[in-house]
């Protein structure tokens, strides 16, 4: 079982291959944003890695981050917990004034993962 550390919240055991955005929200109890529903369109689920950053990324994540000229961050909706990892800088609902974080992301990566 991978260990997920969310800076300021602690370390949590998460199910193998659980989407990172869901692990942050459900296991760590952080009100992370996912305004587009976890579909790699909005970047509100972005995180910075402290340790354990996965080397692979989806084509959708790559395209989304490039279109918004974002570097040094990853989209938690496009990653799975398949190893120990430590993240920080999550975009939280509390900080936005929005009524909700967005619809719950599906259990599997959407759009279907094309790893690059």
Layout: helices, strands, pairs:
Elements: E1 3-6, E2 10-13, E3 18-19, H1 20-27, E4 46-51, H2 59-67, E5 74-75, E6 80-81, E7 85-88
Parallel strand pairs: 1-7
Antiparallel strand pairs: 1-2, 3-6, 4-5, 4-7
Structural class comes to: alpha+beta
N-end to C-end Cα span:
25 Å
| CATH homologous superfamily identity | Beta-grasp domain
Radius of gyration: 13 Å
CATH-derived topology? Ubiquitin-like (UB roll)
Secondary-structure element series: EEEHEHEEE
What fraction of residues sit in β-strands? 15-25%
**What strand line-up does the widest sheet have?**
2-1-7-4-5
Low-confidence stretches: none
| Corresponding CATH architecture | Roll
Identify the quaternary structure here: single chain
The level of helicity is 10-25%
Overall tally of domains: 1
What is the β-strand count? 7
Describe the structure.
The protein has 116 residues and is α+β, with helices and mostly antiparallel strands. The chain has one domain (3-94): Roll (Ubiquitin-like (UB roll)). Helix content is 15%, strand content 21%. It contains 2 helices and 7 strands, in the order E-E-E-H-E-H-E-E-E. It has a 5-stranded mixed beta sheet with strand order 2-1-7-4-5, with helices on one face. The longest helix has 9 residues, at 59-67. The chain is globular. The two termini are 25 Å apart. The mean pLDDT is 97. One of its GO terms (molecular function) is iron-sulfur cluster binding. Residues 2-93 form the 2Fe-2S ferredoxin-type domain.
